[in-house]
Each structure stands twice: as structure tokens, then as C-alpha cells.
Amino acid sequence: MNATRKPIATGSDWNFNVLERFDAELARLADIYRLDTYPNQIEVITTEQMMDAYASVGMPVGYHHWSFGKQFLAVEQAYKRGQMGLAYELVINSDPCIAYLMEENTLMMQVLVMAHACYGHNSFFKGNYLFRTWTDASSIVDYLVFARQYIAKCEERHGVQAVEQLLDACHALQNYGVDRYKRPSPISAEEEAKRQDERETYLQAQVNTLWRTIPEAPTGEPPLPGSLHSGGDDDPLGLHSGGRYPPEPQENLLYFIEKNAPLLAPWQREIVRIVRKLAQYFYPQRQTQVMNEGWACFWHYTLMNRLYDDGNVDEGLMLEFLQSHAAVINQPPFDSPHYSGINPYALGFAIFMDIKRICEAPTDEDRQWFPDMAGSPWRDTLEFAMRNFKDESFIQQFLSPKVMRDHKLFLVVDDDQAENLEVAAIHNEQGYRRVREALATQYALSVREPNIQVVEAAIRGDRSLTLHHVQDSRRPLGRSVYPVIRHLQQLWGFPVHLVSMEEGHVTRRFHWPIEDENTTA
Amino acid sequence: MTYFIDRRPNAKHKSAVNRQRFLERYRKHIKRSVEEAVNRRSITDMERGEKVSIPVKDISEPVFQHGPGGARDIVAPGNKEFIAGDKIRRPSGQGGGDGAGEGGASNQGEGVDEFAFTLSREEFLEFVFEGLELPHLQRKSLKSLEEIKMVRAGLAREGVPSRISITRSMREAYARRIAMRAPIKRALKEAVEALEVEEHKDPVLRNPKRISELKAEIERLEKRIAGVPFIDTYDLRYHQLSPQPQPSNQAVMFCVMDVSGSMTQNHKDIAKRFFLLLYMFLEKHYEKVELVFVRHHTAAREVGEEEFFYSRETGGTIVSSALNLVNKIIEKRYPVGQWNLYVAQASDGDNWDDDSNICRDLLVKELMPQLQYYAYVEITPHDHQSLWHEYESVVKQFPERFAMQQIVEAGDIYPVFRELFKRRLNQS
């Protein structure tokens, strides 16, 4: 399209010089598009190093645990059998933002990954409210180093076995290590290390106070908001009064364990805390898959096309890119043998592209569905969508009828009491809202994972811990519940009861140790 | 702002510790797979990894999950013919997975219920030898047979015509020619110049005598130059060969095993580990290791590996039959000068009463002088019989090269090797 095409480089070979020139160009474009990013730290690595990185769930420094080894073996096996190409990119929410490029990649891949990760994901990490609230990009690497050293020290002192068992138990609960409604204090390695010893004694003191035979109002900071022991004065010995502890159900199981488990040693509490803090770090990622990938795809698509329009890449590279891009955002239909759920890359990309379309060339339908958006400046609208939503609300807010039509989305109700599955809604005028609602719910963490909360710790009784599973639509807990409450019991140190409740009725009880046996071991 | 960092030179085995932890944790499962593999594989085929499978349920990391059942909404793409209100028959054998309900559980893929991975060669061997309490196998120097080989050893002035080094001879000749001609050429030049001076003089002053003298001189010198030979016997150089002792890099290992009725499969499995160990040790040391399997009851036979380990026979035991056969095979196929010979014998100690001293004589007179090493293991928890006692006298004569050991279970195999390594180490 333009006669002055002067590609920065052609062919599939690359070198650092070429990458730097492409990066400079991408940075220039990102500036034009007002992408706000952390500085980039681009690391070129080998296949094997990529498998390492993969196995440690993308943490640049990890503590040692067998489960990461298992992950590594699985990745290695799949890669060697050719079942899986390694993802050609891995990016870490840190400041500077670390992105990995594999040395085997072609020039096109490297440029694509830089556009996707170093400008797409990077700006998402910096802009999205969940990441801003829950993670501190500047300190995560330091914290990981601290965690690794601390755990290694514990292994030295207390034995690998003991630490491993503790980590097993914590990992089983790590999805329940986040306060969903309370803003957390950001992770800070420096502070963690500095206040380390202080906290150990402090934590222990807190627990001791709680477990004293004769309760009294704890001095200092209350362990939990709205603390207990209010009615303690009525009973002179204070043995049975004081109401329930905790007064409010607690959804952050790991936090509750860390602060209240009676028998944990200080170092064990610290490890619970480490797992909890890392779970918190990954918490936003679990909730922004569609948005994060969609955003990154949108930008790599936009930036690559701009590179082409400016004459910085040739047709060959562009064709290779389009093929790769098409593969990434491919969404096989539900009846395809390749179908494995909704592809977050495809869905996210489609929604962001559609937002731009609605802003630039709205139809009547768009004006009706998105009166505020239609005709607004697309870059601002896109930024707003990226910053202020998570998958659930993003889909609820921005999934347009057109995207539903393009993807031919439909809603099936699977009720085990009905003989057949029922198609409840399809992509038509009557169905749009219902489909959108259901898809959004599908991405809600509270629906994806069972809702389980601590309701009572029998601090004046047998010290057992009771949890409620708030059951929804008669969906029971999976079989893994027993191993998990066994882990929970190991942490708590006393019997654990888990009660499934639906609409006020108990549907099922789980106990560990299993009740029939002698429980006073 | 962007920084590029080339991490490729960094260590790549970042996951090694985690990998080790995993293997440690599932030692039992892995050991079972490895044992099966050892029994299935050939002795010569141990130096590669092995695929191991562990049931997924045994290694899953549990988390709270939704189980199947209840009512759920599923949104899926690719609707072609459905309209609202359609009923669809529930797919049979449904896994209840709609992507959303799977949580963060294991994602090893495609609904396989085995977690499969590959042990590296080192890991595999570690498991193979685990029960043997083997330290890291190290390559120790082992006394080898020396074979005489002629190697090139520079150049000499004498030799046979077929070994002339042409380039070196020509170079010598060239040097000599330059050296021999130089003074003559210098004299010639002087004479020519003198002649010229003489001839350019005024005719009155010319000295005809001097001119003819010079002319004669020039002629003489030119003749001398032409007379310098192009090549001389003096120039010839020959490639030199000198005899050098060279360690032979091939070995043959005889596996001798009693397969009489008293040897159970368990005995044979222990014996297999023992043979395996020796084989691997030899393989590290020699470029080429051949295996000869000799089994015997009352008569000995050379067999293939499969038959050696896995077929059963009954009957009495005459050990000397096997030793005789080994001796014959050596004579026929493995000349002592070219092969390092090793014999490993496994037996439960049974032998025909009068045969044991025949064995001893055979060993002392025939075999031991030719062998590098003879290792005998007796796999029995019982008391020794005559064979053991006769062998003890062989040890006395060849303490360096004859080792024997009683083995009750796999863990006892290693000491035999420790003996072997230790002694050789001290010697070298």
C-alpha cells in the first residue's frame, strides 16, 4: 500500500539489534496509542528454560515443592510428544515487567510476543483495578526471593518432609486465601523480612490470647474485625459465654488458619502466610483471563497492523503473523473434537474489537444497547473498560449482540433432575440478555469455586472447626472434599466439620477425622 | 524503557530440585515401573530413560471443587440448529466438565487417568541400583590388557622405499640445493662482473689473459652449478614407525549361570542385576563390550540373553562344563591378545561332588592366566558347599583378579564391586 516500504528486517532470523529496533518502534506506537506500561525487561531464554518457567507457574523465583516438579514433568512430556507447543510467551506482573522470548521463535514471533506481552499484558497489569488493588508489581520479585529463602531455611531447620506436608495442606486451600471484599495490604518483601521476628512473636501472642482458658478481651489489635468476647462479663468464669467465634463467617480460610490455628508453630504460620500472599498475587489473574488475553490480543493485532502500514515489516512477516493470530483466536464450536470450552483469547479479542467498532461505526442496535459508548472516542472507552472491570462484570457490560451472533453463543441448562438438557436461550433478540448474564456468571469466581466459609471455631469446646458450604442450585462438592478437609484438619490440629447448606437446609455433612472412628487420637 | 537480557547462558536445570522432590515422593510407584522395565529390557539396553506412569488420582493436588450433579448453566459457542426450548439428550458418559467447573485441578490433559513422564537415564539407573546402595558410579582406572600397535614416530634417514616421505625428502633436497649452489653462484657473479669490467676497458688496456682466465672460471663454475644433484640419497626421509603398547579397547564378558532346578526366578533376577552392574562398569571403560551367555546344568550351552534369564531347566549341576565351554569360546573367538576377558558367574553353590576340584584346576591352570577378572556370586542363604571352598583356594592364588561373594538379597551385590573398584584404584 505504500511505496516506501522499508522493513526493519526480513526473513525469520533475528538478532538483538533487530529486536531492539522493533522494540523502539513498538514503544513509539504504544506512545501514540497512549499505552501506559511498566518498563520492560525482555529475557531471551531456551526451550528448557521456558519449561522451567512454565513449571513454576510463571514465578521467576519459586520455592521448592514437588508439585512444581510434577508440573515440569507434565510440560516436558507433552512437549516431547509434540502434543503441545510451548506457549511462545510468558509474562510476569512485575515492575519492570519481565517477558520471556524463546530463542527458537522466528522473527515474527518475537515481534508478536513483544507486542502482545510487553505492551499488551504489561499495560493491563499496570492499568486494571484488580491488579492495582491486589498486587504490588514493584515488590513481587523481592517477595518471591524472600519466600524462597524463608522456606529453604525452614527446610533446613525442620526438615524437608515437615515443610512439604505443610505446603501440601496450604496449596489445597490456596484458592481460599483471599479476602474478596477487603482491600489487602500490598505485598512488600522488605517489610516482611524486617518485621519477620517481630511478627512471629506477635502472632503467637495473639493466638495465645485467643486460646486462654479464661477468655478476656484481647489486648492490642483485635485479631479480626468486630472481635468477640463482648458478652464475657455475664459469666464470671467466662467459660461458655462470649458468643460464637468468629462472629462473622470468614471466607479467607488461610488467613483464619494463620491467625487462629491453635497449635501451629510461628514458622508454620509464616509459611501459611507466604502461600496466602502468593495466592493473593495470582488472584487478579484468575479473574481477568478473558480481559487480559483479549486486551493483549487486541494490541498485538493493532500494533502489528500499524507496523505493516508504516512499512516496517514486509508481506511475508505479515502473512506469518496473520496465520499465527488466527490460530490464537480460533474458537472451535461446541461439537468440534477440538472444543475445550470457550477460548478466552477469542472471546476477549472479539469484545475489545467490537467495542472499537461500536465507538467508530455504531449501528442502530449498538445505539440502543450501548447508548453511552456509541460514537465515543474508542481509545478512551477501551481504556475505561480495561481499567475498571473483571471478566464477570466486563462480559456483563460489554458483550454485544453482534459478538454473541458471531460466536453463535447459546445457553444450555443442565439439571440432573430433568431427563434432558434444555436449550434455554440462543443468540436472538429474546436470548441476548439471558446468554450474556449466564456467560458472565460462568466467569464469576464465586460460581466457579464452591463457596466455603469458616463459621465457628469451638474455642471453649472441643476446639473443632466448623465450615459451611453454601450450596447453590444443588451442586454438590466434588470427591476431593475429603482430602482437602484432611489437610485443613492437619493445619487446624482438631476435628473439622464441613456442612453443605442450601437455602437453610443441611444437605450433607463431612467430617475429618471420619466420625465413626475414634476422634480423640 | 526496555532492557534486553540474554538468559540463555544461565543454568537451565532450575526445576531439578522440584523434579527430584517429585521422584522422591512417588518413589514406590516409580520403583515398580523401573523394576518391570529392568525385567523386560536387555542388559545392554539399560542406558536410557524410561517412561513411567502413575495413576492421576494418586498424585492429584486436591482443592474444593464442584462435583457432578445439581443444575448448572452452560454457555457454549457454535450453535447451528438449536432454538430456545429445544431438548437435548444428555450425552452418555459425561464428565460433567464445562470448563468452568474444573477449577484449578490437575490439567495434565485429555482425560487420561495416568500421569506419564519420562525418567532420564541417570534417574533410571539410580532407581535400578537403589536397592544396591550403590554410590555414584565412577570411572576408575582398571588395569587393561596391552596390545602392541605400531604408531608413526616422526622421520628417519633410513627406511624402506615404500615409507619415503616425498614432501619431506623434496624439502630437504631443495634446502641442500640452495645451500650447495650459493657459494658457487656468488663466485660466478663475481667472475661475471670482473669479466664485464675487463671487457669494458679501453682496448689498449685490456688484458686478454685475464679475460680468458675469467671465461674459463665462469665455465667451470657453471658446470659446478649444473653438477649439483637435484636429489641425493642424503635428502631422503622415511616415515618412522615405532611399537607402542596400547590398551585394548574391547572386552568380552562371559555371564555364566547355573540354571538347574534349584535356581528360582528370584535368584535369576538377582543374578541379572549383578551381571548388569558388571556390564555397565565395563561399558564405561571399554569402547566395545561383547556379551556371551553361558548357562549350564549338567551340560553347558551358549544361549541368547532371553533364554539365559527366562527359561527354566531342571537337573543336576556340573559347573566345570560351563568353564570348559568358556575356555573353548575364548580360544576360538576371543584371542587373549586382543580382548579383555571378564567372567561373571552366578550360582546357588550346588555342584556335583567331584566336579568342584576340577573347576578349581580349570580355573587355576587354564582360565585365570587369560582373564582380567573373575567374579563369582553365590546366591544362597545356606551354608557353602564344596564349590565355594575350592574357589577359596583360587582366591589365594589370584587375590588380585578373583573375587567371590555370597549374596542373600539384592543389597549384597554391591560389595563385590566395591572390592573390584577399591583394589584397582590402589594399584593405579
UniProtKB/TrEMBL annotation, chain A:
SpoVR protein-like N-terminal domain residues: 13-446
InterPro entries given in the database record: Spore_V_R, SpoVR-like_C, SpoVR_N, Ycgb-like
Pfam short name (any one): SpoVR
Region (Disordered): 215-244
All residue ranges annotated as the SpoVR-like C-terminal domain in the record: 450-502
Signal sequence interval, chain numbering: none
Highest rank taxon of the organism: Bacteria
The protein's name: SpoVR family protein
Organism of this sequence: Halovibrio variabilis
From TrEMBL, chain B:
Organism superkingdom: Bacteria
Ranges annotated as biased composition (Gly residues): 93-106
Pfam families membership: DUF444
Region (Disordered): 86-110
UniProt xrefs under InterPro entries: UPF0229
Protein family per UniProt: Belongs to the UPF0229 family.
PANTHER family per UniProt: UPF0229 PROTEIN YEAH (PTHR30510:SF2)
NCBIfam families named in the record: PRK05325.1-2, PRK05325.1-3
UniProt-recorded name of the protein: UPF0229 protein HVA01_31260
Annotated source species: Halovibrio variabilis
